[in-house]
Amino acid sequence: xxxxxxxxxxxxxxxxxxxxxxxxxxxxxxxxxxxxxxxxxxxxxxxxxxxxxxxxxxxxxxxxxxxxxxxxxxxxxxxxxxxxxxxxxxxxxxxxxxxxxxxxxxxxxxxxxxxxxxxxxxxxxxxxxxxxxxxxxxxxxxxxxxxxxxxxxxxxxxxxxxxxxxxxxxxxxxxxxxxxxxxxxxxxxxxxxxxxxxxxxxxxxxxxxxxxxxxxxxxxxxxxxxxxxxxxxxxxxxxxxxxxxxxxxxxxxxxxxxxxxxxxxxxxxxxxxxxxxxxxxxxxxxxxxxxxxxxxxxxxxxxxxxxxxxxxxxxxxxxx
Length: 320
Prior knowledge:
Layout: H1 2-26, H2 32-56, H3 63-68, E1 81-82, E2 85-86, H4 87-118, E3 125-126, H5 130-143, E4 149-153, E5 160-163, E6 169-173, H6 174-179, H7 182-197, H8 200-213, H9 218-242, H10 245-258, H11 267-293, H12 301-317
Parallel strand pairs: 4-6
Antiparallel strand pairs: 1-2, 3-4, 5-6
């Protein structure tokens, strides 16, 4: 039963992720809040729908069901063997390896950031100015968000994020405060407060827990990444609506320009950092384009979500 559950979790995740991605592209849905709902729905299939099917319909795992009713039965592929190994076993082994590598690729920076957050006392702090605390209070009130504590780090490094779950804090560096205009700072702080209002720090930890539980499932790793990306786009939209789209786009560009690869002795390390920097700037450019273009709410979004959920539920019932 354990091996069956692992294989079906990967299959159901891949089917749900592929189906949702295809529909989002076909329907040209750009609104982050709507896209987020679809990705959360897809993520529910390996975590909630599959366990329900395994408990309520155990006959799905029988050879009779696979032979007579299943639309896709992965075990059939083990009849084809390469170097004495069944194709089914080989494919799922590679998928499990891919999922593990994707998890490790993201969990290491996540843990490092958490450890660094716990060592903020090692970095000199500066008292937040009355103007900064006033800005945070005003924006939090307008956004109906809890007012986080304000922590100013005395460093030129580009630091601006929200940390904490029960007690949030807005962490910002002197380097950011010195280089952003008043309008850009207002827009950037609004983005972070949108994360506070929407409980995104808590959602981030929940997603990392989900990724840990199914670290071997590549579909779960990719869907969790998509959810994090849509949470960023949702906060972008909230900040642009509260301030100004062009000003917020300018803040994104300014913050991206503050981050530069450090000089390293290793040529290989330097090339990797440059590649990461290019990818980062490409992501910022995509966010800027989306903010400036706007993202109107699609028609019948909830109805579409319900139909997609029902259709996927019926389909994965026959995927074993």
